[in-house]
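Good morning C.,

I know you're traveling, so I'll keep this short. The sequence:
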Amino acid sequence: MVGFLRILAGLALVAIIIVGGLWAVRLAGFGYLLSVSNERVEPVRAEIPFAPLVDMGLSDADNPTKVFRVDMARVEQEFPLSRGDLAGLVPANILAMNQEEVDQLYGRLTAGPIPDGPYLGDLFFPVGDTMESRLDEILGGLKGRIAAEKIETVEGAGRALWKGKMFYRDDRVLRNFIEDFRSLSGLIDDPEALERATVPREGILSWVLPTTDVYLLFPAKLYCGQSLLDGRRESVIIDYAYNDDLPGYQERPDGLAGRNGLRVRDEIRMIRPGFYLGRAYLNKVFLLNFTLWNAEVAEAGLTDSAEGAPVAEDCWAGEQVRHAALQ
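The tokens, ready to paste straight into the viewer:
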């Protein structure tokens, strides 16, 4: 069992680092990275409608323990989200949802416009219907608690490493950014050649130093494509498979996210201007959720979004019209 947990924790760490723009962490620097991790955001429950977590009208006689979820089209038809519902959401609200609720939210969103500029990121692993780690629910008892604690540690490391994504809308290209790559210098072909950018800072320190310089790694291509969760409409796809022909590409570490490595693929949909919900996949296997937040865009578009201003859709929004609930 110990070996299984080590493998599990290792895979999870690889996943969040690649999603956040890094491949591995030197053990000597691991504690340092945790010590400077992002400030933990306290989850805040949002008052928005959700379908029941389980569709009690469906069952499988051959597998009576199987859990059926409510179909996405039915969720959207019977539990629509108004612009007012979406305008009130912030990243802390997403952290308070179990995975079925996150999925239901994602299924009721459209892709919106492909973002442009810097977006600060946060990530979190799926939690079950009881708001415990899914591994905790599946394994149960002491084994489940041990697994959940390892996932929590890895999640904290991910927050320390990954700071967000830089979108280049006109070029349909993205790069991930970090503040400090010193613990990874041995894994990068040419650290001096890394691109840099200035982005807004987050947390208490932003009151004194509102911006910070970051390093850009792991380029990816941006395009509209079918969601791996909800095929009724497209999402903005962040594809690392063919990143080797992008400017600034370095085989180490960028190649590890590509088609000859872990085959990372992200997809995002817009909650409201400046705020996106994302899903990260490793070789088409879902691993974790993430949010992207640009405070300037979010503040500028808040009033128009809440009042129902048209959304600039870059991707196909599907045949099912989104219903606006009564205000």
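Safe travels,
E.
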